[in-house]
Write a structure and sequence with these properties.
By secondary structure, the chain is of the alpha+beta class. It has helices spanning 3-18, 60-68, 126-145; strands at 28-33, 46-50, 75-78, 81-88, 92-97, 106-112, 116-123. The chain is globular. InterPro entries: PFN, PFN_sf.
């Protein structure tokens, strides 16, 4: 795996107005090394993160959730927020935060590539979700070109 390519692609994606400050489609993003076919004793690691401080131990429940594959029947936790799945697609799903304090709500888009899971968090509703999905798809397509 070409980690230098991933580093460059992530840095370019983050700095071109996709993640972080107000006005960007995403408030935070996490790129996780993830092999669903690997043994469960192999820990998934955080490859990159922006806009959120989360530790690998904080991802255990989320990774267990992903491995179980019961997307429509369970919730998952990221940081202090609990999410419920609202739509499931071939290699990604969308979720809404159950315990948000934001008036317009919060959401997450989770996209799986060959060796990564990209978790993107956004504030807002339908329009914000569309913008977030476009930003996530932009980065995921870069990874897919290299079979990541």
């Amino acid at each position: 795996m070409d980690s230098a390519f991933v580093d460059r692609a992530w840095d370019k994606w983050v700095t071109t107005g996709n993640v972080g400050s107000s006005g960007n489609p995403l408030k935070a993003a996490i790129l996780i090394n993830y092999d669903p076919t690997g043994p469960s004793r192999l820990l998934s690691t955080i490859a990159k993160q922006e806009g959120i401080d989360i530790y690998p131990v904080d991802l255990k429940q989320f990774i267990d959730f992903m491995r179980r594959g019961n997307l429509p029947t369970e919730t998952f936790v990221l940081g202090s927020n609990q999410y419920i799945i609202t739509s499931i697609h071939e290699n990604w799903f969308a979720a809404r935060c159950l315990n948000t304090s934001q008036p317009a709500g919060e959401g997450a888009i989770v996209m799986q590539t060959a060796v990564y899971v990209l978790v993107a968090l956004y504030d807002g509703s339908i329009g914000s979700a569309s913008q977030a999905m476009a930003a996530v798809d932009q980065f995921a397509s870069q990874l897919s070109r290299k079979n990541f």
